[in-house]
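Training component of the fellowship. As part of building independent skills, the fellow (R.M.) carried out the full modelling exercise for a liganded target. The chosen ligand was NAP. The inputs are recorded below so that the supervisory panel can assess the work.
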Amino acid sequence: MDLLKGKRAVIFGVANERSIAWAISEALHAEGAELAFTYAGEILEKRVRPLAEGIGAKIILPCDVTKDDEIDKVFQTLKQEWGSLDILVHAIAFAAKEDLSNPYVLTGRSGFHLALDVSAYSLVALTRHAAALMEGRSGSILTMTYMGSEKVVPNYNVMGVAKAALEASVRYLAYDLGPRGIRVNAISAGPIKTLAAAGISGFKEMLHYSSERAPLKRNITAEEVARTAVYLLSDMAGAVTGEIVHVDAGYNIMGM
Ligand code: NAP
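Fellow's submitted model of the complex:
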């Protein structure tokens, strides 16, 4: 359909072919966007580079989002190579394993900082850099969240708190950047089996529980998230900003 023909997008958060960011990348590519990728470390480069090159990406850069110099370098390169940017996809989260299994009350200061830094602050930092390349281009920014920000999901713990900060950041960033024509939105996805999900204690039960209770009586796929991402990142959602769109087979509407 070429909904994104001529658009340039940078993707943060591909770890492997099961990553939500990868499903989004494939969908953006199918709609005609040109893509640049980042990876979080040398081990991941081996998995990300072949995937990215397979869809014609030429810009593939390291970026640990806790390091300002690595973030600076990504956007300097994008400025040199592309001059401007239309789309930023942020699909990054991390918390220490013990903080996703112990009771939340045991979360220590360093675990709290780490989860909030990687999973929430990184959106603010990346958005600031991306916005500088989006002047006059109706840019669009998308992040990924989960309902554990709104309600208690056992074991999600500090990640739920980080996602609450992330969602509030979406609204504040949308307010700041709206006058410049830049939109900021999030997708709140139902559980999907990925590398990050495997770190959450009891993830299998989460999958089972939500498929039983969601109105659509099933789990969702990364491809379904990707199709909503295309909508939010394209002009089809030209008047949508600051929103948290649930793609969860309706699970979040249930009370009992
Ligand atoms: P994933 O494939 O494991 O992706 C998570 C990504 O975050 C990985 O590429 C990971 O790289 C990256 N990351 C972690 N720490 C980083 C750092 N310091 N710097 C740069 N990148 C870093 O898992 P996913 O499920 O697709 O997750 C993508 C997003 O969707 C996350 O925000 C997640 O919370 C959200 N989400 C997932 C689900 C689900 O059920 N899967 C549901 C709702 C929302 P490393 O592998 O190197 O750490």
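The panel noted the following from the submitted structure. The CA atoms of residues 10 and 36 lie 5 Å apart. The chain has eight helices and seven strands.
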